[in-house]
Specification:
This protein is of the alpha/beta class and about 240 residues long. The chain has ten helices and eight strands.
């Protein structure tokens, strides 16, 4: 299994960011870590071993990026406004630095974003804000209301990072059509603590006639990582 470690000083974020790349060709998959995770989280959880065949046969190339949640939503040492601004910077890092990096490595124009927990939020919100860049979303056990991290703070920055708020009020038909072309899959499991949050996000998408899949895995677990590999692999195609 081809594995490559990359790191560079991000001009957008003003700090070094790390990444693992698995494979050399195939449909690119951009993987966001959980709120407590990092760029090697999915490898440590054994998921890259589960998709080793896709990597070796050239079906998929995986780009596992570092997270920044401890500097944004989870950073209680700064005010909520600063948390949201840091999230904006992280999304600009993905758009202006990671995306060109992927496109330089891989000429396949189709892109999948994926994540679980707050990583699921990142995978979905990036697609909703930049629908021309993303073709498929695999959001596993995610929650999509970032108000829980903002202590009641609200402004345009928080609004446009909170899909349960900005999607219901989105009336631009062209943008809605672009979003509707994305293969969005919202996944949870029977005793998923984020199951209600996933269902709420699904209901909001249906209210805007945005076609998508909302699937509840018919299993229970105390450790989501026992189910995530199968949920992820089964939805790659």
């Amino acid at each position: 299994m081809q594995r490559e470690y990359r790191k560079w000083k991000s001009p957008t974020l003003g700090r070094e960011m790390e990444m693992l790349v698995f494979g050399k060709e195939g449909t690119p998959v951009l993987i966001f870590p959980t709120e407590q995770g990092n760029f090697f989280e999915w490898e440590d959880q054994g998921i890259m071993d589960v998709v080793e065949e896709q990597i070796d046969l050239g079906y998929n190339q995986f780009f596992c990026v570092d997270g920044l949640d401890n500097e944004s939503f989870l950073n209680k040492d700064v005010d909520p406004y600063t948390r949201v601004i840091r999230e904006n910077q992280y999304q600009m890092y993905i758009k202006d630095e990671v995306m060109p990096f992927i496109q330089e490595y891989n000429t396949n124009p189709y892109l999948i974003t994926a994540g679980t927990g707050l990583g699921a939020y990142h995978s979905l919100v990036f697609a909703l804000k930049y629908p021309k860049l993303v073709d498929k979303v695999l959001a596993i056990s995610g929650y999509y209301d970032i108000n829980v991290h903002l202590n009641g703070f609200k402004d345009d920055n928080s609004y446009y990072n909170n899909p349960i708020e900005f999607i219901p009020n989105l009336h631009d038909e062209e943008i809605l059509r672009e979003i509707s072309t994305i293969d969005i899959r919202l996944l949870s499991y029977l005793n998923d603590p984020n199951r209600d949050a996933t269902e709420k996000m699904s209901e909001i998408l249906w209210l805007k006639f945005i076609d998508h899949e909302h699937y509840v895995w018919e299993e229970e677990t105390k450790n989501p990582w026992t189910l995530i590999p199968s949920m992820f692999k089964d939805n790659l195609f």
